[in-house]
Specification:
heterotrimer, A mainly alpha (327), B alpha/beta (325), C mainly alpha (285), A: 327 residues, MetI-like fold, B: 325 residues, alpha/beta, eight-stranded mixed beta sheet, globular
Chain lengths: 327, 325, 285
């Protein structure tokens, strides 16, 4: 078990290194001076010069590469061209905000997806199942920005139930602890739902299929033969097995959630990495763009690693494979 | 004959698929007495497993469906019970064990937990008491070091041990009837006999009836009191075990017995019954065995009834008309 | 190949009996017709401004079925023309990604060994950068245009195909007819082209169809962020963006182009699901 995990950790480190290499080559894709391509009038020569120094473009390519890797590995992402402050400082503010949003969205995604999928499977071919399957397909096909606007139109502008942007109200500083919590929670509802719901549709489809596969297994017949109620057969026996592959799906969906956070944060003026990314692209703040790219990839790789670990913990056949049972 | 425990009459179970309707069990009837061991034999696909699942009402619907007949258990018709009442019967009054113990056990729960669950459900015991009972059951089926094995997962055990776990689970609530569906078929030859012996011993010790479903007549000869032979969804012969082997009445039974290897027999090729089992989607008119039968004659074009041959013997063959044999 | 025609006709028979798949196919056909016939279907111009300010944000009416936008342009007209962007960009991008992915997957799967290992680790690495971030980074680094957006959408989406094709190749490699071809002295390149790719075709087509939807959503998201097709060329994502400020006063500006995206993506997903169920009932489930 420990050995398996160590191996996966090694693979993950290899992946992080590859991501860094890819980003490095993206920057150096064209032959000659990469800075020549950024030679647009919006940028003053001083900035270009600063970038040149920052990326070490005055040195040989292998040397640049070595510096690039070691700087990133140490969390030294350089200086933001726009704010003239360390990129790590900007990230330190943006990352927790993005995490708050994505973690809540992840919860929405898993709970909604699993609940719908299991219910559909339990009532295969019922009206609920048919409507639900079609609804999942439609939700999966809705552009998140449009869904966000429609929900804002309804719940914020027409009904006035929920705030339409930012993480908290402007007067949040004057609120008590409980009020502040409520205020922030209200600000989370729409963005987290928008971010989580599309993936939830995919999860529901997958969960339904996974449950149906399990329900065909012999052990389900044994569970019924024991006299267990249909609920216990479903939720205890079939679900425990169906939930194992779900871990992988959750891991694989992290890039979608993070990618979705760009659009969601932009619409809801959420001060996270996604907003910072879009802003940095418009202002051509390359150090920030590359650093965010890196951080996001590390999150994805870490997420997959955790998902694999969860898988191993949930499935006794993996966890004990090292010990070997009686043959 | 002992007092009647289970009485099946005219049971009909079908499977509806795109290809048509398969009449898997087509008018089956037989009885099992208290404490009696009855062998239900036949080739694969003859409907014996579907009969077993029908008794438990575990036929998957759709595509399967019990279309008619009655299954009287201690006088109650199981087919008339509500799902809730039926759950009180399953695992409590009637238990079943299956052919493939690995896939029949849930891979993510310990063996002990899977036994404990049944005990807790039917005997309304708490966690500790039910665990104690489960360990007791593991000891009863002779699993060494039961306290430790309680926490083992199915994949950590051998095939024979897994089947012992299945038996422990099935017997944990003292059922009056145990249905054993090919309990030794999937196991190594060396442990097959052990499992059958264990079943014989446990059933004798607790006055439990056993319906043993198998394609293996040798197993039946070992432990059954009576034998029911099925062919193409119907019972073709019923007989006490000794008489069946001494003088089989139905040509199909004769064929089955002739294909058994025997002590002292020279190692030539065993005689097999020629031909194939009829297609359950398209059962033949008349006697279902007629196209494979060497003794076929004109009358076989109409389906024979079960003739009573006295001495508790029945056979579905025109040759037995008028009680002859 | 013998049995091939039976495979296709049996699949087609299943496909025809699937109402959802047929609805998807019909919708896509209709969308392509609309894109081609846009100038015939509407009397208005998609780009030039209407009479301002009286034509600004007119609600749906007999003259302007889906209302007008802030420049007094007919929303329906812009939607009709906008279908051209969505359909062209997604079709070209998916073609690029299928070609790239098939080449990488075929080479990796067929060569095996160290080449395979290195290529597949690269695929893993690229897949750990979320798609939109990879796209945005590329857009930031290069200059922006419709062609670039198309190429980038294709160039950032081939990894899934590569994995699929490699898996197919590995399973097909062991089958007899490849070794027969090898014994006849066919070169590796020819084996890949003649035997392996056609066999992997079903898988590729299904995954490509299912991915077109994602590409349309990606293009729309880029346009919405202001990083896609430059205005005034009508694109659905951008139209949604333009209506964002006037949700209460002119709800139609955002609502209808968004619906167009939903309908298109749903249609492609229905078609993809239908193709999968009809031609490959086991493979993907």
């Amino acid at each position: 078990m420990a050995r398996y995990f160590a191996g996966r950790l090694g693979q993950s480190i290899l992946l992080v290194w590859l991501v860094l290499t890819i980003t490095f080559f993206l920057l150096h894709l064209a032959p000659g001076d990469p800075m020549a391509r950024y030679d647009d009038p919006e940028m003053d020569p001083e900035t270009v010069e600063m970038m040149r120094r920052q990326f070490g473009l005055d040195r040989s390519v292998p040397e640049q590469y070595a510096r690039w890797i070691s700087n990133f590995a140490r969390g030294n992402f350089g200086i933001s061209l726009r704010y003239n402050r360390p990129v790590s400082e900007l990230l330190a503010r943006a990352v927790p905000n993005t995490l708050r949003l994505t973690v809540v969205a992840l919860a929405v995604y898993i709970i909604l997806g699993v609940a719908l999928g299991v219910t559909s499977a339990a009532r295969k071919n019922s009206l609920f199942d048919r409507v639900g399957t079609l609804a999942a397909l439609i939700v999966y096909s809705i552009p998140s920005f449009w869904l966000a606007l429609m929900l804002i139109m309804l719940f914020s502008l027409k009904l006035g139930w929920l705030p339409s942007s930012h993480m908290q109200s402007i007067d949040a500083a004057s609120l008590g602890a409980l009020e502040l919590f409520r205020n922030r929670a209200a600000h989370l509802v729409l963005p987290a739902f928008v971010l989580g719901v599309a993936s939830a549709a995919g999860m529901a489809r997958y969960m339904r299929g996974s449950m149906l596969d399990e329900l065909r297994c012999d052990y389900v017949r044994t569970a019924r033969a024991k006299g267990l109620s249909e609920g216990a057969v479903l939720m205890k026996h079939a679900f425990r097995n169906a939930a194992i592959p779900i871990m992988t799906i959750v891991g694989l969906s992290i890039p979608f959630l993070l990618g979705g956070s760009v659009v969601t944060e932009k619409i809801f003026s959420w001060p996270g990495m996604g907003s910072l990314m879009v802003e940095s692209i418009f202002t051509r703040d390359y150090p920030v763009v590359l650093a965010i790219n890196f951080i996001v990839s590390v999150m994805v790789i870490l997420g997959n690693l955790l998902a694999d670990l969860g898988y191993a913990l949930l499935d006794p056949r993996i966890a004990y494979s090292g010990e070997g049972g009686e043959r | 004959m002992p007092e009647e425990l289970l009485k099946i009459e005219d049971l009909r179970t079908v499977f509806r698929t795109e290809a048509g309707t398969a009449r898997a069990v087509d008018g089956v009837g037989f009885t099992v007495g208290r404490g009696e061991t009855v062998g239900l034999v036949g080739e694969s696909g003859c409907g014996k497993s579907v009969t077993a699942l029908s008794i438990m009402r575990l036929v998957t619907d759709p595509p399967g469906r019990i279309e008619g007949g009655s299954i009287l258990f201690e006088g109650r018709d199981l087919l008339g019970l509500s799902e809730k009442e039926m759950r009180k019967v399953r695992g409590n009054e009637i238990s079943i064990i299956f052919q493939e113990p690995l896939s029949s056990l849930n891979p993510v729960f310990t063996c002990g937990e899977q036994i404990r669950e049944a005990v807790a459900l039917h005997q309304k015991l708490g966690r500790r008491a039910s665990k104690k009972k489960a360990i007791e059951m593991l000891r009863l089926v002779r699993i060494p070091d039961p306290e430790k094995r309680y926490g083992s997962y199915p994949h950590q055990m051998s095939g024979g041990m897994r089947q012992r776990v299945m038996i422990a689970m099935a017997l944990s609530c003292q059922p009056k009837l145990l249905i054993a569906d090919e309990p030794s078929t999937a196991l190594d030859v060396s442990v097959q006999a052990q499992i059958i012996e264990l079943l014989a011993e446990l059933s004798a010790g607790r006055d439990m009836a056993v319906l043993l479903i198998t394609h293996d007549l040798a197993v039946v000869a070992q432990i059954a009191n009576r034998v029911v032979v099925m062919y193409a969804g119907a019972v073709v012969e019923e007989s006490p075990v000794v008489e069946l082997f001494d003088s089989p009445a139905h040509p199909y039974t004769k064929g089955l017995i002739d294909s058994l290897p025997r002590l002292g027999q020279r190692l030539e090729r065993l005689p097999m019954i020629p031909g194939n089992v009829p297609d359950p989607f398209d059962l033949p008119e008349g006697c279902r065995f007629s196209d494979r039968c060497r003794a076929r004659f004109e009358k076989c074009a109409t389906e024979p009834p079960l003739f009573d041959l006295s001495g508790g013997r029945l056979a579905r063959c025109w040759l037995c008309e008028g009680g002859g044999g | 190949m013998s049995g091939g025609s039976f495979f296709w006709s049996a699949g087609w028979a299943r496909f025809r009996k699937n109402p959802r798949a047929m609805a998807g196919a019909a919708t896509i056909l209709a969308l392509y017709l609309v894109a081609i016939l846009a100038p015939v279907l509407t009397p208005y111009d998609p780009v030039s401004h209407g009479d301002l300010p009286e034509m600004r944000h007119q609600p749906p009416s007999r003259e302007h079925l889906l209302g007008t936008d802030k420049f007094g342009r007919d929303v329906m007209t812009r939607m009709l023309y906008g279908s051209r962007i969505s359909l062209t960009v997604s079709f070209l991008a998916v073609t690029i990604s299928v070609v790239l992915g098939s080449i990488v997957g075929a080479v990796a799967g067929y060569t095996g060994g160290i080449v395979d290992a290195v290529m597949m680790r690269m695929v893993d690495a690229l897949m750990s950068i979320p798609r939109l971030f990879l796209l945005l980074t590329c857009i930031a680094l290069f200059s922006r245009s419709l062609l670039l957006v198309t190429i980038l959408l294709g160039a950032t989406g081939w990894m899934g195909t590569a994995r699929l094709v490699r898996g197919q190749i590995l399973s097909l490699k062991s089958r007899e007819f490849v070794s027969a071809a090898e014994a006849l002295g066919a070169g590796s390149g020819r084996i890949v082209l003649r035997h392996l790719i056609p066999n992997a075709l079903t898988v590729i087509i299904v995954s490509a169809t299912l991915r077109i939807g994602l590409i349309i959503l990606g293009e729309a998201a880029l346009s919405f962020l202001g990083l896609g097709v430059p205005p005034p060329t009508p694109s659905w994502g951008q139209m949604v963006y333009e209506g964002r400020e006037v949700l209460l006063d002119a709800w139609w500006v955002s609502t209808f182009p968004g619906l167009a995206i939903v309908v298109t993506v749903v249609a492609y997903n229905l078609l993809g699901d239908g193709l999968r169920d009809s031609f490959d009932p086991v493979q993907f489930t």
